[in-house]
Amino acid sequence: MSGAIDLDGRVAVVTGSGRGLGRAYALALAGAGASVVVNDIDADAAAETAALVEQAGGKAAVEVAAVGSGEAADALVARAVDSFGRLDVMCTNAGVLRDRVLWKLTDEDFDLVVATHLRGTFTCARAAAVRMREQGEGGRLILVGSPAGQRGNFGQTAYAAAKAGIVAFARTWALELARAEVTVNAIVPTAWTEMTATIPVYEPLVERVAAGEPLPRQVRQAHAIGMPADSAALVVYLASAASAEVTGQAIGIGGDRLSMWSHSEEVAAAFKDGGWTPEEIAANWSATVGPFTQGYGIELPPLELDGEGEA
Known about the structure:
Layout: E1 11-14, H1 20-31, E2 35-40, H2 43-55, E3 60-64, H3 70-84, E4 89-92, H4 107-135, E5 139-144, H5 147-151, H6 157-176, E6 182-189, H7 206-210, H8 217-221, H9 228-239, E7 250-254, E8 257-261, H10 278-284
């Protein structure tokens, strides 16, 4: 493909776009020509993002709401239609963290995380799908996953579960919306944020980033950590006509790294006529499926920053 991606005439909703990755997505979509509905629970942050869009020559509307309820999702779609006449892209970025190990995680914290990430993605995608099917011109659902949902992560019971469910949404809805020419993909972004800066391995980089220094190449590639704007290119691509054949995928983006996550599938199987007893599983484990056990948890290579000269 040659030439710049052009989203002129397209209308996008980006939930949780008052700051961070969501703001980067909204600005990038607007920069490619789309009109954008900015959503956040923080009215000031949403207004600031909208102002940045307009200062750059784009068009923005604001809908202040906490995602999760059907009413909030319907209001987001209505804001897009009332302000710009249509809806073409729904990017479900809004989220919240309540990190606790299993035995310390409260019902209230679990419910909040799941309601925001999982239910919020469901209700916003449902409202968008209804509108896109009515328009009859296709559309794009861009769901936001996480490495925690793909691999699991210590202290993130609710978050990892919700993000894993979001990828399952993408694969299911890609089937259901194919006839309507609505593509559905999950992105798995990684970026330098306030949360990333608290991870111990990155402590040596905090002052450097605050001073405006670029992240080292090792971080941008091996760790797939760049600034939020680095992850926005994938959103613009998936919002465009160029991605019309891409659906049902989980796609990673961060720093210099673009990746494709595999679907869950069987990696080994063994058979015994009449089925297995517990004793037979134990006796045959090492000779059948045992060697194929899978890793879990997010694993990062160690950083070697001393004397590094290449950014």
